[in-house]
Amino acid sequence: MNRRKFPGWAIVLIVVLVIALVAGISVVGPYNTMVGYDEKVTTAQSNIQTQLQSRLDKINELMPAVQGAMNQEDDVYKDIAALRSNTPGISMDAQGNMQIQNNASLADLEQADAASSQMLRDINIAVEAYPELKSTDLMKDFMTSVEGIENRISYARETYNEDVQTYNVYIRSFPHNIAAGLFGFTPKDKFEASSAAQNAPVVKFD
């Protein structure tokens, strides 16, 4: 009895399909992991933006009182005005309040962090120069709120950089770097806070 033989092309096709299946399985796992890490980084960046907006919201509440008490020729007054109007990633709404733009890049957030940190330092100078500001309920509320906000900003920065580190190490490691190249996953930059922004600004009442 003659056994039926598979034609050569069929054997080649089966081998190719098996190789493709194995390759596909070996890529799907890393791809899904990279997507998960990428989403964590995106979420962490969004959290930085949320906390920076909280800082800006408190500054927005305080600005009318601070600028109302100051001489418009003061260097600090001019510095605050310049930071509010000329910082990339920060826009002014119809009420004159600072808002971080929805499409703000990482670089925009870094500049918003540095600018708003400087605003807090300018506010501290204004409080020292205009003692009447110290006794306002608005300023007291600001002082009690700002410490918690600064702690959350610091934590958000650290979390983002840790997530970026995990993502970058994964996509650069063999064999994940092959899948990363195939699907366009590239290294991400860490959040680089300015030396001034790394130290949480504090409004003092001493």
Protein model, in words:
The chain has 206 residues and is an all-alpha fold. The protein has one domain: Up-down Bundle (de novo design (two linked rop proteins)). The protein is 71% helix and 3% strand. It has a two-stranded antiparallel ribbon. Helix 1 crosses helix 5 and helix 2 (75-86) runs antiparallel to helix 3.
Secondary structure layout plus pairing:
Elements lengths: L7 H62 L5 H12 L3 E3 L5 E3 L5 H24 L7 H36 L3 H8 L11 H4 L8
Antiparallel strand pairs: 1-2
Helix pairs in contact: 1-3, 1-4, 1-5, 2-3
Essential attributes:
two-stranded antiparallel sheet; single chain; mainly alpha; 71% helix; 206 residues; de novo design (two linked rop proteins)
